[in-house]
Amino acid sequence: MNSHNVAVVGATGAVGREMQKTLEERDFPYNKLKLIATERSAGKKFKIKGKEHVVEAIKPGIFEDIDIALFSIGSSPSKEIVPQAVKEGAVVIDNSNAFRMDDNVPLVVPEINPEEIKNNNGIIANPNCSTIQLVVVLKPLYEMAGIKRIVVNTYQAVSGTGKAAIDELDKQVRDYVNNKELKSEVYPHQIAFNILPHIDVFFDNGYTKEEMKMVRETRKILNDDKLAITATAVRVPVFYGHSEAVNIELEEDITTDELRKSLQETEGIKIVDEYPVTIMTENDDDVLVGRIRRDNSIENGFNLWVVANNLRKGAALNAVQIAEKLVK
Amino acid sequence: MNSHNVAVVGATGAVGREMQKTLEERDFPYNKLKLIATERSAGKKFKIKGKEHVVEAIKPGIFEDIDIALFSIGSSPSKEIVPQAVKEGAVVIDNSNAFRMDDNVPLVVPEINPEEIKNNNGIIANPNCSTIQLVVVLKPLYEMAGIKRIVVNTYQAVSGTGKAAIDELDKQVRDYVNNKELKSEVYPHQIAFNILPHIDVFFDNGYTKEEMKMVRETRKILNDDKLAITATAVRVPVFYGHSEAVNIELEEDITTDELRKSLQETEGIKIVDEYPVTIMTENDDDVLVGRIRRDNSIENGFNLWVVANNLRKGAALNAVQIAEKLVK
């Protein structure tokens, strides 16, 4: 196939919009592009590569002429609709949590495990946003020196929750400026000028689903079931871009320069001196790394600061990069 | 002494104002209260315990009738003025970094090492804000089970920088709401809707002064020169309250319930279920702890979320608590 029929499912959401933009910016070689969403969003119009596209509602047969479908509609809807798309002949790249830990579904970051793509049975899973930027950095170090243990703490943007959360932070700062009472609907607490150590539901072990996604998905992508990793996932009053403080204990002794060089040479990573800040990711698709320094509290220890655009590399871009590998 | 003459030096700053409020709220038994500041702030008036106080400029002899002087004027001014106050007969409780690591100066958190107060030679140092809330939590665990290693990442409010930084965050969100360009003067980057992994100056080892304060002061307060600890200090767009993700590796095996109980029984700590958020510290002087859970990536590992008011327990309240012990 030289040209393909592509669908974006969940086209009107925060990630869906980024998928549209990413396909356009990277001049993805599609023949036809279908924008698909729920009944509620059907009829909305978007201009892509100079051509108007009208959003269509999901219905039987809608995927019959589709080769590749990029899904971003959340876990429960994906469980329902993805099998339909596969049955109707599309290969699905799904951004939800629905299939990520399924043994029959490859979980892919194209810089890391592109070879997994060919093992798909109709579904390829896009990892969680906070996992993607982490594994992009871990992979070269894992290969170079082995990883003994990781402690990661996140500083995650509200756009990871979706458009309603972006609106809630925006509304709360407007209400602050206008001396009005701040109201919370999306989050259980005020998010403006506040820090919430809570992303997604809590499990019995005291961890959130987001934290366990980072643990399990990292193990699956690095293909190491025993990898020692612990995470604290935290929501911060930032619109776009996730930041992560990553503490790594390596198996083998390498110098700080060797570590830096290895990251510098990795596709998709950019070292920022003296350090990257979150808003830099609004115009940069790379995973930005800084604050590289030895952790003397332990042998072979390092601290890193890792920042990426959660909607782009953390979601839409990674999905489109998978699609690009798929059509090659 | 049953009643004392007390001075607040730097009385018009963010911490100085909190010192005034804290002395009033806790009905500190002073005979006379002097508010002292630089020439520029002299003449400003504040009402405390119903009585008007006029800010006086620093000048020779101003401490001659003072028993206890609470200083919050920054490191360089403290180095200059504190010796004058001591010479004129005051005991100084200094909130700056000037004397903290001096072997002749006790570094005190009253819940932890009140016995050090009597070893003062005229100066008692108040620890760094991010250190205080950390050691309050570490101390009972250190005594109960020993501590092998700590990895701490902070989420620190702009009020830690001072009034100019509070104003800068406020101004930036107002400019955002009014569609104006956001300008940065206090911080090297925009702080609204952004995360800055940078607090205080950088050292050659790649760490910031704030991070090394947490390492060195924690070791001094716990009286353990070898304590393994690494820190990443991060500024977040929050006005008041520092949050910390604390990963602890204990020497001995204890249960999560034992750990929780030990913290629950510690003076100055409150366990918040299911978790504390930063703005809770605006009306709570305790160190708030939540997200207590076992870290299975290592033996005897735990993760905690620790939040406190950086201007109160992290500065003014701790200083006043030291003064209270001093007068007993």
Strand content of chain A: 15-25%
Total strand count of chain A, please?
A: 14
SS-derived structural category of chain A: alpha/beta
If strands are numbered along the chain, what order do they take across the biggest sheet of chain A? 5-2-1-6-7-8
Biggest sheet layout of chain A: 6 strands, parallel
Descriptive notes:
The structure is a homodimer of 328-residue chains. Helix content of chain A is 29%, strand content 24%. Chain A is of the alpha/beta class. In chain A, the strands form three sheets. Chain A has a six-stranded parallel β-sheet with strand order 5-2-1-6-7-8, sandwiched between helices. The first copy, chain A, has a six-stranded mixed β-sheet with strand order 10-9-11-14-13-12. Chain A has a two-stranded antiparallel sheet with strand order 3-4. In chain A, helix 1 (14-25) packs across helix 7. The longest helix of chain A is centred in the middle third of the chain and has 17 residues, at 129-145. Chain A is globular. The mean pLDDT of chain A is 97. Chains A and B meet through strand 9, helix 4, strand 10, strand 11 and strand 13 of A and strand 9, helix 4, strand 10, strand 11 and strand 13 of B.
